[in-house]
Structures are given as C-alpha cells and as structure tokens.
C-alpha cells in the first residue's frame, strides 16, 4: 500500500488544476441547466449544449460521460441546493421561492432556477422507466433533508406532535410536486401565497396544544 | 318563428335513434379512454382507436370531428364524472379513490379510470400551449364543484371558517395535482392514506373553534 494513493485521482492533480476542473464543471452544469430547462432533455442537443456552455463537445464530455450522466449530475446538483434551502428554511420556503419566481423570468441566478431541471426530472420519471431506476437512488437527499428539518422543528416544539414526521414529510413533498406540476402547466401562481400559509400551518403545532 | 324548431337537431331525431347515438358515443368514449391511457395522446393512433372501440374510423369520426375533439370530449366527460364524486363526497374522496386504485390494475370499470385521461391532460397542458387554451374553458367544472361542496360544508359547520373558501379550493386542487403527478411517476401510494387524512383535517373546522 502506498500512502499517497487515494481513491480519487484528483488527489494527484495540482491544486490549481483542481480549481480549474471544478470551475469548468460548474460552467458546464450552469450552462446546461438553462439549456435543459429551455429545450427539455431530448431537445437539448449536443450542439445546443455547446452553445449554452460555450464549450466544445470534447470539453463537455471530458467531464461527463454522456448527456444522460450530465443531466443526472445536474439533477443531483440541484437537489443538493434545494436540500440546503430545506435544511435552513424548510420545504415550504422552497415552494415560496418557486412562486415568487415565475419560470422564464430573466435576471441571472435565482433560487428557483432549478425549476426547469425539476420539471424535466418529473417528466422523465413519468415517461422513462430506466431513468426512474437511475434517479431513485439520487432522489433521497431532498426527502432526508425535509425529514431532518421536521425532526429538528419538532424537537424545538414548533411542529405538531400528533402526526408522524414521515406523514408530514410525504404531505409536504406531495404539495411540492403539485406546485411544480401547476407551474409546468402554465397556471397562475400569484394566488398561492395563502395556500402555502395553510400548508405551513398544517404541519405546525396547533394552538389548541399550545 | 316555428315552434318546433329547437337549437339542437337531435329534437328532430326519433327517440330510439337518440338512444342509439348516445350508446354509440359512450362506446367510443369508453374504448378510447383505455386507449389514450395506455398509449398516450400521440400514441393513440386511429388504428388503435378502431381496435379499442371496435368501430371503424368512419363511425368514430361521425361522432367526433377529429382525434383532438374526441380527446377533449373524453376529458370533459371524465371531469364531469369527477365533479359528481366531488359534489357528493368531496375532492379528498376523489384522491382516496385514486390511491386505492393503482394505475394499470385490471378489473373492469373503476372510479379512478379517469386517471389515465387526467395524466394526459396534465402532460398536454405542460407541452402544448394550443391545448392549454382549448382546455381552459372546460376545466372550470371541477373547480366549481369543489368550491360549491366546500361552501355547503361551511354552511353545515363542518369547515374551518378562518380561511377563505377560494384558498381551501386551491389547496385541495394543488394536492390532487401532486397526487396525480406522484402516481404518474410510478411512486408508491400505499403510504398516502394518512397524508390524505391530514389534508382533510386541514380544511375541517378546528377543534379549537368547536
């Protein structure tokens, strides 16, 4: 055994190159996110991915094995960012971000720029059983983040304690899925703020217990 | 003005033929419902519609102008049947029917046999702006049935009175959309019964008001 051999070959790459690789990877993810959101998975051709990222197909597929791997990495990246918002502010805040940022609005990076990816994930889960299997193992982190957040809220006395945390988690995920679908259908979201208030109140400690 | 000229030419058709027309129309709707659910809108070719209904294309398109008109009539028919369940038992019962009947299960007519149509409506609303415009005018009846049911429940003292009926209606519709999407993605529904209990309880009169 040689002490400097790690499981990741990045360990053997100089720091400056590592930073470069990470920046390049980020550039590809951010460019292709907009491309997948605009054209859908099938419509996001290699040529369009080149245009959207400003990189050649050679450069793109140096970092990601194929389009499918790129999309899965993107979906995983977005799920990770959503999970971070969930951990700090809860899943209802994720939903509030969604309706405060109608899809298609311009203006640079936005907390809800993952909507396009999420819609494509939902669509492919409906239509592509192979994708369903590949996504299953990656989809747990949002559920886990929601569950952990709810447990902390329960410990802090903010959550109702007459309904199991698993049920509350499923409830919030179901509403999120409905909201994503609602937005995907182009339905107006400007009247949903009080609906999300109701959702939030439904998982909170009831005043009759207070 | 002639007293016997009605706005509908069916008034001039003998009763037995009217019954025949209605039965034929029903035959087409029920056969094509299964066909659209199985193959999707695009995949439901005229040949497949002929097989599914047991009728020739000439007979089918004698009753419906084209495939689009047939699909819209079907979606409207299903929305009407859903609205009837809503009027009598509420939208949460519609959702309970959905999770007690996993899509694809065999066994003849079922209260949730409209799931396939509903999924296709949702998908086409996402992908087809023209369809969106045509469907908008027809989609009101489920919302109206839900709103009217909630108003009656409020008058009967069963509904919470601190949240507007419009908000409660939107809330229930959002959960339904989430449930439809959940099932469409092939996710398990066997643990959603307590989630629907929570949804139902969230619109009911709170005990603290009782």
TrEMBL record, chains A, B:
SUPFAM superfamilies: Homeodomain-like (SSF46689), Tetracyclin repressor-like, C-terminal domain (SSF48498). GO terms for molecular function: DNA binding. It holds the Pfam family TetR_N. Residues 45-64 bind DNA. Keywords: DNA-binding, Transcription, Transcription regulation. It comes from the Bacteria. Residues 22-82 form the HTH tetR-type domain. This is TetR family transcriptional regulator. It comes from Gandjariella thermophila.
């Amino acid at each position: 055994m040689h002490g400097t051999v790690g499981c990741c070959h990045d360990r053997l790459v100089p720091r400056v190159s590592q930073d470069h690789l990470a920046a390049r990877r980020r550039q590809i993810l951010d460019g292709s996110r907009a491309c997948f959101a605009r054209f859908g998975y099938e419509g996001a051709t290699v040529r369009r991915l080149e245009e959207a990222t400003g990189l050649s197909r050679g450069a793109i597929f140096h970092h990601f094995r194929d389009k499918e791997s790129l999309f899965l990495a993107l979906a995983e990246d977005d799920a990770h960012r959503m999970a971070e918002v969930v951990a700090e502010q809860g899943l209802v805040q994720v939903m509030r971000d969604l309706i405060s940022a109608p899809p298609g609005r311009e203006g640079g990076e936005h907390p809800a720029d993952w909507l396009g990816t999420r819609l494509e994930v939902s669509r492919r889960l409906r239509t592509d059983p192979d994708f369903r299997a590949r996504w299953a193992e990656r989809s747990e982190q949002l559920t886990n983040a929601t569950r952990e957040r709810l447990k902390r809220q329960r410990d802090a006395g903010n959550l109702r304690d007459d309904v199991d945390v698993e049920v509350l988690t499923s409830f919030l995920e179901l509403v999120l899925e409905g909201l994503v679908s609602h937005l995907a259908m182009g339905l107006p979201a400007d009247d949903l703020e009080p609906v999300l208030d109701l959702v939030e109140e439904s998982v909170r400690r009831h005043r009759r217990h207070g």
